[in-house]
Amino acid sequence: MKHILIIDDDIHINNMLDSVLRQAGYRVSHAYSGTETLLFLSKFRPDLILLDLMLPGLSGEEILPQIADIPVIVMSAKVDVKGKVDLLLNGAVDYITKPFEIDELLARIIVQFRKTSNRESVKILEHSDITVNLSTHIVQVNSQSVKLTKTEFAILKLLMENPNQIITKTVLLERISEDTPDCMESSLRVHISNLRKKLRDISGKDYIEAVWGIGFKMAEV
């Protein structure tokens, strides 16, 4: 079941969209501010985001560049062409003007999921010099293969799927538990240390950054 996150501070719009999307067969979550959105995305990864721009605290324009690898459809009453172009250049995949017809929104969502499905058929993750093939489990740095353990691969996959987000230790353990149920908090740091060394041995770069007291993220290299 596809998971859609609605980001809008209007409770009535949230409730209306929640009802429509659930009837269409989607799982729905909500965030009512920019700050709440970033907190949600640090723990969960929806398949698509519906984003209003006028939010309390951080605006939609401010959080949009911080959303990586998740299709975002902007919902806004702003209709100027330049504003739409800027949003599309800054990461949005589509823009629908309020008020909108529900059938049109549902159609736009279906189109994005079709595009996502086509991209996922390739199943390739890339970050800097690293390439991860999710189908074959082949990991390469500068076109040179790296042999990883099952746990190391699961950690790298999760971090590369969320390259701009800090993944806490708790979330990391929860998210990789299906693939590597034997990985415990006591051994997590060892697995990450070994993974960092294997990647670093090829290029001399450290691709995984430890954020002290919080967790880990992909480094900007």
Name the descriptors.
42% helix; Arc Repressor Mutant, subunit A; elongated; Rossmann fold; alpha/beta; 2 domains; 221 residues; 8 helices; 5-stranded parallel sheet
Describe this entry's structure for a reader:
This protein is α/β, with parallel strands linked by helices. It folds into 2 domains: 3-120, 3-Layer(aba) Sandwich (Rossmann fold); 124-218, Arc Repressor Mutant, subunit A. It has 8 helices and 12 strands. The chain has helices at residues 11-23, 34-41, 60-63, 81-89, 102-120, 150-161, 169-176, 185-203; strands spanning 3-7, 27-31, 48-52, 72-76, 94-97, 124-127, 130-133, 138-141, 144-146, 167-168, 208-211, 215-218. A 5-stranded parallel beta sheet has the order 2-1-3-4-5, sandwiched between helices. Helix 6 packs across helix 8. It is elongated.
In short:
The chain is 42% helix and 22% strand. By secondary structure, the protein is of the alpha/beta class.
SSE diagram, text form:
Layout lengths: L2 E5 L3 H13 L3 E5 L2 H8 L6 E5 L7 H4 L8 E5 L4 H9 L4 E4 L4 H19 L3 E4 L2 E4 L4 E4 L2 E3 L3 H12 L5 E2 H8 L8 H19 L4 E4 L3 E4 L3
Helix pairs in contact: 6-8
